[in-house]
Structures are given as C-alpha cells and as structure tokens.
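User:
I would dearly like some help making sense of a protein record. Take your time, and here it is.
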Amino acid sequence: MNLALSNAGIVLKAQQFLRIDESQHARIRCEDGTVWITQDGDPRDVVLGAGQQFTVDRPGQVVVFSLSGAKLELHSCIKALAKVKRGWRTRLLSGVNRMFGRLRAFESVAAQG
C-alpha cells in the first residue's frame, strides 16, 4: 500500500486501506471523501464522511478503508498521555519536596532543643 502524507494528514486512494495497531483513544477525522472503519473484535462498522470523526474506543487493531478516496487526520493519545505522566511526576516531586521540607524543619527543631 502506498500512503501519501500531506500537511493535513493521510491521503488514501479509492479502495486503499490503512491498518493501525494499538490505537485505543486515537481520533480519526475524515477531512474529505468517505471511509469505513472496523475495529478488531467489534461487531460495529463506522462510516465517516467529510467533516466527521471517530474516537477508537477499544484496544487492538483498526482498519480504515477508503471507499472513494479520502483525506484523514489521525490524532493519537500520546500527547494526552504525556500530559498525564508529566502531571503525575510533578505531583510526586511536589509531595517529595514537601516531605523533605518538613523533615528539614523537624531536624532543625530537634537540633535546637
């Protein structure tokens, strides 16, 4: 399969497909054309026309099939996960800093008295 990448995302020719592995929470937006989306183990089929989008709601493989040629934008959840991880790390470090601050204060009081 030959995929043409553009600034707007992925361009599929008519009857061309795109297989995406491990794409849970990814958002697929159809900018132009019509695509058929199916997820591994899901009995539903989703058809998107221009301007419509779909968020992958289960783990596993997704197949996007272009019915008439299509231009897609694929937004993964990597940025969202990075924010969550960064926020978690920040909260952890903040808690550790508070704990060491209290420990220093305790040591200083213990040293004085």
Remarks:
- The chain is about 30% helix and 40% strand.
- The two ends are 77 Å apart (CA to CA).
- Confidence is low (pLDDT under 50) at residues 1-8, 79-85.
